[in-house]
Design goal:
The complex is a heterotrimer of chains A (167), B (105) and C (644). Chain A is mostly helical and 167 residues long. Helix content of chain A is 75%, strand content 0%. The mean pLDDT of chain A is 85. The termini of chain B are far apart. The relative contact order of chain B is 0.13. The chains are: A mainly alpha (167), B mainly alpha (105), C mainly alpha (644). The interface between A and B is large, with 90 and 72 residues.
Amino acid sequence: MGEQIVFLILGAIIAGCSILAVTTQKIIRAATFLLFVLLATAGIYLLLDYHFLAMVQIAVYAGGIMVLFIFAILLTNQPGVNVKFEKPWRMFLAALAALSGLVICGHIIFYNVTKIFKYAEIDYISMQTIGTAMMGTDQHQYLLPFEAISLLLLACIIGGIMIARKR
Amino acid sequence: MNNIPMEACLAISTLMFFAGVYGFLSRKNMIMVLVSLELMLNAVDLNFVVFNRYLYPGQMEGMFFALFGIAIAAAETAIAIAIIINIYRNVKRIYIDENITELKH
Amino acid sequence: MNDINMSYTLILLALPFLMFLVLGLLGNKMKPLVAGVLGTLSLGVMAAVAYYTAYQYFFVVGKVGEVYQSLPVFNYEWLQFYGELKINLGIMLDPISALMLVVITTVSLMVHIYSLGYMKGERGFQRYYALLSLFTFAMLGLVVATNIFQMYIFWELVGVSSFALISFYYTKPSAVAASKKAFIVTRFADLFFLIGILIISYFAGTFDFATLTDPDAPFIGSAVGATFLGGTALSWALAFIFIGGAGKSAMMPFHIWLPDAMEGPTPASALIHAATMVVAGVFLVARLFPIYVGTTVLEIIGWVGAITAAYAAIVACAQTDIKRVLAFSTISQIAFMITSLGVSGYGGHDGLGYMASMFHLFTHAFFKALLFMGAGAVIHAVHSNEMKDMGGLRKYLPITHITFAVAVLAIAGIFPFSGFWSKDEIMAAAFHHNKAIFALLFFAACLTAFYMSRLYYRIFWYDNNKDYHHKPHEAGPTMTIPLIILAILAAFSGFVPFSKYITSDGKAFEAHIDMLVAGLSTLAAVGGIVVATLMYAKKKDAPNKFTQTFPRLYKWASDRFYFDEIWLFVTRKIIFDRISKPIAWFDRHIVDGFMDGLAYVTQAASDKIKGLQSGHIQQYIFVYLIGALSLVFIFIFFIAFLLS
């Protein structure tokens, strides 16, 4: 019962904040709402017993990415100026597309997915397990994607420096 | 978690995703577009985890790919913000479709 | 056949071409005099080579048994189509080409020397010499051609150099117009020449003169077999080839370009439009003579020549521009040669006309070049082409006067000057062949004597006490020496025993003077001269009275019987208005319209669909999303429904 209440609260936060994040006029508020959404998502990860993932979510997303966002906003925005929107016709179309997508996906979720899921309790996933899985090369082990991601990050570091430096 | 149905989790992620879609389509500010993008990525991560938890509880693929997704999102955000700052430095505006028509040198 | 290597004849083609390149490309770097002397010296070398070649041919290697052979001394296969049908470039020596080598190089050398004085101080002096070299190259290539296609190539080159020389004073609009006229008229005729070549090579399977002019050539039979509009293919081909020749040789009705071509420098006119290029048509018919023999086409050629001769003689009597008089005289004399070919048979004494034609070509080249150069000296002295600005010049220009008189006597056909011998042979050939043609030629000969004497008197006598602002004086030795040399040639070249060397079948025959014909033509010449003397030796009223008596005849003659107007009518009113304009309309509105329509449709379509490539990322995403959702919708709801 407690879990349900926590889940409902988290779900409400996610739903409300994500909608607010994309509709608000002030860009710094949008970033703040995004932060709430990310934290609430970390909460759901916790509920689902993925503790490590929740920590990563908080550390990387809520910590790293949000700091970047806020820096960018500070660097590029005059304070107190509202953000412009698309033309109303475009906004209507966008809303229509998003809503229709929502309806179709909702239909799929509620009429197709329910029939096949079953819930099973899982053990606590230790850091050792995660580390072994990430560093191994056997089945269900992920050294190759890990290395690929490392390379991607390296490329991003270099690219970020190259793009943002003053000429 | 027994008493939380899977579709509830999926509904939340779907809502998040289409909120991101809406934002992506309707906003002109680049940072807002990036915020919407983050929402969509986050929704996908959530989906990975939820499917892993409910359908293949003995394995960890979903979790790991959520992990990698977070890393990729971080990388992408860093690059995107570098680009945005560079554009701002050159044309003093960060609105799509307006005056960013002279990117080539 | 002697195994004598005659490849030195290549010098005759290589040297003038080299001079053309050198003078044309580097001429502006040289002093004008250097360029002129260089050109003249090279021409001197060529003349020496040509004389030696002709000597070798006529007296050493040419004769096998009793017959002069054609010697292919050089041959290079240039383009092969299939089998025997190939285009060679080479040098062929036979009596007429050896003759032409001598004529061309001699006249050209004289013109080169003469021009050193005449063209002195003109702008473009080097260009003038470069073009003379080009012309000499082309003309020599034409006469030594081994096949009809090579001849055609050089034929066009000759036309080009003629075009360039007529428009030498290209700042004068009349010169430019004249050059265009010459080019278009001759090019139009050359189109027929090309068609003729194609027809005849289609039947013969070769371009080679050696095969084509073999009297027993097998293709003639097959070409006779195919008919078109009542004529055999052979006749059509020969007629078309003759039209090409008529264009270059200014036969009616293609003569209209030659009088206007006098806009060029006078020495160039002497070389090109009097002595050499305009006889290319005669040479062409002579070259293909064995095929022409006995056909209806040859009869037509005879008639065309005779009519042209009479027509041009009449017109020449009424011209006042001395160069135009000479131009019409040229047309008339070339028509004599053409007629002579037209009345000729093949072999032995039947080939008298052929021999006479070549003979007249030979002598005419000298006396006509002399006349032009004399006229040039006169123009040089009085700075005008018009007769009314001249008169009494014999006191001022003694050398020109005497040489001119020699040339007039030669062209009129007075014994023993060269013109008498050659013209007499032509008259004899015509007399034995067709009396009507003979009558026309006789009439033309009378008028020739008349108008040439008129020209002579109007220049050198007539108005004896005329005042000149600047006293006319004789030109320098560069101009008088060629006059004297040519006068000697014009006086005595008639004594060459032509019938021994140049005959239709290569065998020598004995030509004798037909006393009746000789008497008649001498009578004609003397009569013409006497009448002219009575009318023009002193300034009198007789000419005016004559023109007042026959005003219409005089008007028609001085307006050249309105041939130019007829051509203009045909081209402007019929071809341009009735054919060209509808075609132009069709091209502009249908063809271009179709293309414009394509372009318009493409542009309009692009304009409509360019929104798809707007570069608006949100638009792309929107479209993508709609597509993805539609696919999902279709799969989930329709496919599932159909499968269930």
